[in-house]
Amino acid sequence: MLNAALRVPPSPIFDQMEFMPDAFSGRREALPHYVQSPFPEDYWLSLRFLLSYDGSTATFNAYRREIERLLQWCWLVQEKSVCALKRDDIEKFIKFCMEPPRAWIGTKNCARFVGPDDLRKPHEDWRPFVASVSKVQARAGMHADTADYAPSQSALKSLFAILSSYFNFLIQEEAIGSNPVALIRQKSKFLVTTSRREVRRLSNLQWDFVLETAGMMAAEDPAKHERTLFVMQCLYAMYLRISELVADERNVPLMTDFRRDSDNNWWFEVVGKGNKERSISVSEAMLVALKRYRRHLGLTPMPVSGERTPLVPTLGGKKPVTSTRHIRAIVQLCFDTAVERMRLEGLEDESHELQAATVHWLRHTGISEDVKFRPVDHVRDDAGHASSLTTDRYIDAERRARHASARHKPMKTES
């Protein structure tokens, strides 16, 4: 018989950072009213772990999601403390995450809690797991179904990494003696090892259409779309991640992050993934794009010392864009407009593929093009890759040659 806890959706455990209690004071407060747990120390340990990642909202959210699921499974399904988990328990939890009960799966992303500070209550539609459909499927009228939920390989790899960090933290806190995740010898039961991960990028034709479309949009409505053109150029020419365009707790990207060295070469200084700083070499074409956008904003051609202009300001304002969702909307509108133009010109296959593109494809496209003629280590450093092995994924020369040798294979054997 199905465990009663599996038939009803659990309530969220962790709110946004600003609404959570102080986990580091010596004095233990009562658990928040919405947390019902027979193991309160699990909550405080987990909260301390999560708050140690308060420097990055994206990282905090990813860790919160996985640790919250773990605690819900421990308390409601296994009825044991997280500190009592062994290797076999972790394997059970991974399997649970691969096939969660239908009642724990939603079909839309919801806020965990609603209401003012002192009246925070769980959102009734929130679920620990969310089924979704692709952009192409959504446009075709398809809707997410809880029966179709399936975590991706990247999500499972992330789960393993986060759980391992969490249990290492518990060891440091002297709450447990060993890391049960590290004791799993056959992660291959859950993870598929691939020799090469496909790089999702735009074709040269698609990128030409997208860039041309952004230019046309800027010409038709400069007040709105000069920014669109500049954003597209930044993402492609400097391989920027979407998070590197917006302001957050760590950093506010500014125009003055473009800097000239003693050799008269321009660099763009960015705080990227893992809170790491890097310098990106700026091409002459990117400098032309920067000057155009600054002229549109009524600024000097190049940034001047002491200037505080955001790299991507809000429309008609001087404040920086702070939401990655805002950037995604800018890019998606450009993609959608390019798709329609391609269809009108009879490029049905190319337009269909472009519908699936995301913001990150622009970074992949820029890197993939540059490794054709730039030294790999130069591209690696500009992209912020920790290893050249990551950059090597973008080199397609060998695959192109292999495909060329197979292209004209006959179906019939020659007599």
TrEMBL record:
<dbReference type="InterPro" id="IPR013762">
    <property type="entry name" value="Integrase-like_cat_sf"/>
</dbReference>
<dbReference type="InterPro" id="IPR011010">
    <property type="entry name" value="DNA_brk_join_enz"/>
</dbReference>
<feature type="domain" description="Tyr recombinase">
    <location>
        <begin position="197"/>
        <end position="409"/>
    </location>
</feature>
<protein>
    <submittedName>
        <fullName>Tyrosine-type recombinase/integrase</fullName>
    </submittedName>
</protein>
<dbReference type="InterPro" id="IPR002104">
    <property type="entry name" value="Integrase_catalytic"/>
</dbReference>
<dbReference type="InterPro" id="IPR050090">
    <property type="entry name" value="Tyrosine_recombinase_XerCD"/>
</dbReference>
<keyword id="KW-0238">DNA-binding</keyword>
<dbReference type="InterPro" id="IPR010998">
    <property type="entry name" value="Integrase_recombinase_N"/>
</dbReference>
<keyword id="KW-0233">DNA recombination</keyword>
<keyword id="KW-0229">DNA integration</keyword>
